[in-house]
Amino acid sequence: MTDTLPAGSVIGILGGGQLGRMLSVAAARLGYRTHIYEPMANPPAADVAHAVTTAPYEDLAALEAFAKSVAIVTYEFENIPTSALDALEAHCPIHPNRRALSISQDRLIEKSFLRDLGLMTAPYAAVDDAADLAEAVEEIGTPSILKTRRLGYDGKGQERLKSPDDAEAALAAMKDAPAILEGFVEFSHEVSVIAARSLTGEVAAFDPGENVHVGGILSTTTVPARLTEAQRTDAVLLAAKILNALKYVGVMGVELFVTKKGLIVNEIAPRVHNSGHWTQNGCAVDQFEQHIRAIAGWPLGDGSRHSDVVMENLIGDDIARIPAIAREKHTAIHLYGKAEARAGRKMGHVNRVTPR
Amino acid sequence: MTDTLPAGSVIGILGGGQLGRMLSVAAARLGYRTHIYEPMANPPAADVAHAVTTAPYEDLAALEAFAKSVAIVTYEFENIPTSALDALEAHCPIHPNRRALSISQDRLIEKSFLRDLGLMTAPYAAVDDAADLAEAVEEIGTPSILKTRRLGYDGKGQERLKSPDDAEAALAAMKDAPAILEGFVEFSHEVSVIAARSLTGEVAAFDPGENVHVGGILSTTTVPARLTEAQRTDAVLLAAKILNALKYVGVMGVELFVTKKGLIVNEIAPRVHNSGHWTQNGCAVDQFEQHIRAIAGWPLGDGSRHSDVVMENLIGDDIARIPAIAREKHTAIHLYGKAEARAGRKMGHVNRVTPR
């Protein structure tokens, strides 16, 4: 641990949502302080942070002051403007690195990176205009999904094409943003691997979890996932290949479709991931601590799973179920301190634990 | 949950040490914010709190402003001046209640309260002067321990009498503070029960832990403790009796000596307790969350133990062992963010977990 961040150092976190909140708690547990940078006032992470800057990502002076107040910078979401990264990186290191960010910020670049690594993805084609889309539909067929290349999450910026007739409306919904048409993948279920790579190149992965989405938003993650031993090994090796190729430092979420042809990479997220929340109550070291360990130069922690866990997201009005959930056995509650329960808003999650 | 503290409410915590720090994280997990009141600057809890007031307990204006900014007040240590409690209680409720505090603040009152409940304690006698001490030594004998009635912790304010000859020096060490002579108890080991009582009078206890002290400071807690089923039941019932007698709300630590004659109460602490830190990695709901649940009007959580755990305190220079501990399997690290590793100072703890 020669290059370990000294105890008491301040870690800067871009983004003050629930992921930043849980990263902040993990950083504290390892003896660090956090400084949250977030455009919106009173973000969830502010409740458990040492310092908070409320400023937009376009405020280069605020970014510079922030960067000077911290030892390293990390982030809880991938859509950080390049200009903001430039301003920060002039003063301190950013983990995970910018290559990982730039790849995950653009679905087209991401898919081509994965293909270059020899990994399987859904069939895809770039779509900048109606002619591209017509050609892509010809090649990939329907059903397929038109997605913006950038800034999509939780099913936003996505339009489904049931038949070629849907092409025009789908393209209009992209509002001239560069897009990508993705072919439909016949998969039996989705799993994800939460993997980490340390400053010294050590790689570790948590047991893959099985994800169920409802309305484009993650609903539950279950460990163990339904996978053969061979699939489990494939999933972990594939994640390691991605991390090593990027000389990645930190935790990454890798979403995979389980198909008859093998594991197909859906997308990668260069950060802690909702499908890794189960680790908080299933392992001695959770994904948030693993991320802090990686970026702070610690050895990776023991993420072996001591229990079976079902993680359930509490979305919007689900929060009203808390009084009943609070009486459940073997259930750990994690709320995010958000004032207003809007539809589709992640308000918290619960981990239901069964010792193995 | 009709009297439940609304989500987003601010919980005031007196004391910003590691207990306040871990209480603050638990409060956030349940959707609350915390405001720490602490005389010393930059306390451990400040790293994970919504707000911090730095002021002495004699500053009644600061106390009043603090009380007005929070919905309820709790505390991480028992030696809070009565005048401070008066100032706070004029504005908001304090949990656990003042009777519990006043009893635990004075070893003589505590022992007499426990005896009145029909529980066993060490033999004891009040000592205000040399005549009292001579009489007490006559009655109780040696070896015995002279302790200040108030403000002792971690072995401070205690003098051992190996023979009656030690009486004069021991009394001088009390510096005229009212004291109590406690007879020596022949015990095989010490256990503690971390128990909780809710606003509605529901009581729950974690599995008793077995404690080993070194130099008067807790070194390790091991669960399961060496106890027969009957002793385990006795320990939990005894703790429940204390909580109910005090109409207590919150978590209490009850230290017990295991002797041939049965369980003898050593002392009670009206707060979360170092010997309950194992619950963080051994249960779905830990002692910190249990305390917040109790004082916030939630039902008590499921504190059943899913794993065997050995908690080890990291004291003073023990912190230098972190690089080695960080590589251990099945080990969860909890550091307190204290800058300076002074001898006898609790810097953190680790929980070594073995699934049952």
UniProtKB/TrEMBL annotation, chains A, B:
Please state the pathway this protein functions in, per its UniProt record: Purine metabolism; IMP biosynthesis via de novo pathway; 5-amino-1-(5-phospho-D-ribosyl)imidazole-4-carboxylate from 5-amino-1-(5-phospho-D-ribosyl)imidazole (N5-CAIR route): step 1/2
Q: Which keywords annotate this record? A: ATP-binding, Ligase, Nucleotide-binding, Purine biosynthesis
Is Ligase given among the entry's keywords?
A: yes
EC code = 6.3.4.18
Question: What sequence ranges are listed for the domain ATP-grasp?
Answer: 111-296
Give residues annotated as binding ATP. Answer: 107, 147, 152-158, 182-185, 190, 213, 266-267
Q: Which reaction does it catalyse?
A: 5-amino-1-(5-phospho-beta-D-ribosyl)imidazole + hydrogencarbonate + ATP = 5-carboxyamino-1-(5-phospho-D-ribosyl)imidazole + ADP + phosphate + 2 H(+)
Highest taxon of the source? Answer: Bacteria
Q: Which GO terms describe its molecular function?
A: 5-(carboxyamino)imidazole ribonucleotide synthase activity
> Which InterPro entries does the UniProt entry name for this protein?
ATP-grasp (IPR011761), ATP-grasp_carboxylate-amine (IPR003135), ATP_grasp_subdomain_1 (IPR013815), PreATP-grasp_dom_sf (IPR016185), PurK (IPR005875), PurK_C (IPR040686), PurT/PurK_preATP-grasp (IPR054350), Rudment_hybrid_motif (IPR011054)
Instruction: State the PROSITE patterns in the record.
Output: ATP_GRASP
Q: How does it assemble?
A: Homodimer.
Q: What does this protein do?
A: Catalyzes the ATP-dependent conversion of 5-aminoimidazole ribonucleotide (AIR) and HCO(3)(-) to N5-carboxyaminoimidazole ribonucleotide (N5-CAIR). Catalyzes the ATP-dependent conversion of 5-aminoimidazole ribonucleotide (AIR) and HCO(3)- to N5-carboxyaminoimidazole ribonucleotide (N5-CAIR).
HAMAP family (UniProt xref)? PurK
* Family under the similarity heading: Belongs to the PurK/PurT family.
What is the name attached to this protein's record? N5-carboxyaminoimidazole ribonucleotide synthase
Species in which this protein is naturally found:
Albidovulum salinarum
